[in-house]
Amino acid sequence: MVRIQDDLYNAVNGDWQKTAVIPDDQPFAGGFADLNRDVEKTMMADFQAFANGEKSSDIPEIRYATMLYKKVLDTEKRNSDGIEPALPYLETIRAIQSVDDLNRDASKLLMQGVELPVQVGVSINMQNTLEYTLCNSRVVV
Q1: Residue 115 DSSP class
Q2: Burial class (CB in 10 A: 0-12, 13-18, 19+), 66
Q3: Which helix H or strand E contains 123, and what residues bound it?
Q4: Nearest to residue 136, comparing CAs of 78, 58, 123, 126?
Q5: Quick check: pTM over 0.90?
Q6: What's the CA gap between 115 and 109, in Å, rounded?
Q7: 11, exposed or middle or buried, with CB in 10 Å at 0-12, 13-18, 19+?
Q8: Could you state, in order of their start, the residue ranges of all structural domains in the chain?
Q9: Closest CA to 108 of 92, 119, 129, 127
Q10: What is the pLDDT along the chain (141 residues), one digit of tens a residue?
């Protein structure tokens, strides 16, 4: 038996650690992990029911999510299409050689859902909090 004054963590969690099983595909275990797994199972069963026509909804977002779900499952079409659908985007990206080119094409690419290699944002200038500054929030390498 671990004394609480010697090792609080093991005194509180020791018995649980001896019996707890953390699934190999999960980073942690516990009530929230169980809840998350149950919600995911329910959600995926609902998506399958919507995709099969067993359920329907007038909510546009549900119909859109179901359409995306069906697309993800259609591996045959995705495999037959190959890289072809992405080529126009890749050509536009490949043609960007300067900041002016990026400025010209960035809004079009963003509206098409294409991630840009550089993401910028506006943040408070830490040297003068009355001003805002343009900052690089992420660079994809």
Answers
A1: P
A2: buried
A3: strand 118-124
A4: 123
A5: no
A6: 8
A7: middle
A8: 8-81, 84-139
A9: 92
A10: 788 999 999 999 999 889 988 888 888 888 898 899 999 999 999 999 999 999 999 999 999 999 999 999 999 999 999 999 999 888 988 998 998 998 888 888 888 888 777 777 788 888 999 999 877 766 554
